[in-house]
Amino acid sequence: MPRSDYYDEDGSTVKNQCPRCGDTFLAEHSDREHCGKCGYTEWK
C-alpha cells in the first residue's frame, strides 16, 4: 500500500492507529477495522 494510505498529507500523523495499543495499525476489512495485537474492533 502507498505510504499515503497510512499517514496524513504532512507525513506526521498516523491514520487508522489502534487507540488501545497506540503503536499498531488497524486492519481494514469490509465491515470493520481490527487490531491484530489486542483485538480492538471498530465496526463500520
UniProtKB/TrEMBL annotation:
Cofactor(s) demanded: Zn(2+)
Q: Write down how the cofactor binds this protein.
A: Binds 1 zinc ion per subunit.
Residue ranges annotated as zinc fingers (C4-type) are 18-38
InterPro entries noted in UniProt: Ribosomal_eS31 (IPR002906), Ribosomal_eS31_arc (IPR022845), Ribosomal_zn-bd (IPR011332)
Q: Which GO terms describe its cellular component?
A: ribonucleoprotein complex; ribosome
Could you tell me which residue ranges the Small ribosomal subunit protein eS31 domain spans? Answer: 3-41
List, in alphabetical order, the GO biological process terms annotated in this UniProt record: translation
Q: Which GO terms describe its molecular function?
A: structural constituent of ribosome; zinc ion binding
Q: Which family does it belong to?
A: Belongs to the eukaryotic ribosomal protein eS31 family.
How this chain assembles, per its entry, is: Part of the 30S ribosomal subunit.
Name-wise, this protein is Small ribosomal subunit protein eS31
